[in-house]
Structure formats: structure tokens, C-alpha cells
């Protein structure tokens, strides 16, 4: 069964800042890729995708995870592929981490979706809409409050 997990960003958490949120995304990429998952990061636009790629370069050597932007890198890609609205993954991925703040939905395209519920009210409402879409598509849904320093 397909699952969609929504991580709730608490107002008083470090993830409620751009740097803290990006650090958490890097952590998730490391976590999932170590489990062998092929991950697709969906960003809002090309500039956002490039910023996230840069965050993945800024880790310690021991924590580095190979990654590439859509259309770059080896033929079958790396464990982490970064794209944006308007482009598609180069090949089959099991898991998508949605960083786009629009109505992007991956229902039926991935077996596992990771999404976020931000603090800001408009973004929170968009997350609720995505949640409804996944529920209607038959995804098993869960929410998790981020417990990360």
C-alpha cells in the first residue's frame, strides 16, 4: 500500500527557519538513501533545486550522499535526484520528498510520499489540500511532529 507522511513543522522548532528546514531535508535524504531508497526531491523551481543541491554538498565527508539534478549525473542517476515543478524524474523512484509549496501531488506516481505541514497559515492550507488528495487516492496517511534538534 502507498503511504504519505506529513511532517509537522512546529513553530518553536529549528525547522521553522530556512536553514533549519534545509538541514532537516538533508537529514531525511541521508536517512532514506542509507536504507537504499531512490529518492526524488521536488522543489518549487530550478533555483530552489540548485539551493537544495548546494545544501547536500555542504555536509561533512562522512555524511555525503551522492545526488544530482534532473538531467545531470550518471545514466541511471544517484540515490537522490533533485527536480522541480515542470520536470520529471529521470527514472523510477520509490519515494518523493515534496518541497514545493504549490498544489503538487504525486498520487499514484510514487509508493511513498514525504510532505510537510509548515507553520505559515497559507502553506498549511495547501498542505491540507495535498493531504486530502492523497487520502482520495487511497494512500495510507500519517502525520509526525518533527523531533530533530
Order of helices and strands: EHEHEEEEHE
Q: Give the name of the CATH superfamily.
A: DNA polymerase III subunit chi
Number of helices: 3
Helix content: 25-40%
What distance lies between the first and last C-alpha atoms, to the nearest angstrom? Answer: 31 Å
Rg is: 14 Å
Average pLDDT, to the nearest integer? 88
User: How many separate structural domains?
Assistant: 1
Alpha-beta content class: alpha/beta
- In the CATH classification, which architecture applies? 3-Layer(aba) Sandwich
Tell me what portion of residues adopts beta-strand conformation: 15-25%
Task: Report the principal-axis shape.
Answer: globular
CATH topology: the name is Rossmann fold
GO molecular function, one term: DNA-directed DNA polymerase activity
Enzyme class: transferase
Protein name: DNA polymerase III subunit chi
EC number: 2.7.7.7
How would you explain this protein's 3D organization?
It is a single chain. This protein starts with a strand and ends with a strand. It is globular and about 35 Å long. The chain has 3 helices and 7 strands; from the N terminus they run βαβαββββαβ. The protein is an alpha/beta fold and 149 residues long. The chain has a single domain, classed as 3-Layer(aba) Sandwich (Rossmann fold). Strands 3-4-2-5-6-1-7 form a 7-stranded parallel beta sheet, sandwiched between helices. The longest helix has 17 residues, at 18-34. Pfam families: DNA_pol3_chi. InterPro entries: DNA_pol3_chi, PolIII_chi_sf. It is an enzyme of class 2 (transferase). Its EC number is 2.7.7.7.
